[in-house]
Amino acid sequence: MFVFADRNSIDTVFRNLISNAIKFTNPGGTVKIKSSPNNKMVKVFVQDNGVGIPKENLSKIFKIEEKISTKGTNDENGTGLGLALCKEFIELNGGKIYVENNTTIGTVFTVELPNVG
Question: Which domain holds residue 33?
Fold first, then answer.
């Protein structure tokens, strides 16, 4: 499976998504990365069973002007810019990013990128 994308920007996206999944998952929790290709797009899922995203923040997390920053499970700080930059990088590469969230069972970020193989 191959995608058409700028390697550096996609590396940054997945580093941020995986880092966030770890940051917001309690010790002993799980982070899963899965992929699912079809004819036109490759979907990559970053899933955790962490604390989830508060409902009031869901509509803001991809907006750079909002700067939503939440401390991690070990009190780690963030800038609040990471997910907005992820969205920008994914869209510049012809893709989409979206989130499914449940504050009791965790979060799944889905990235879709053009399939070339």
Answer: 7-114
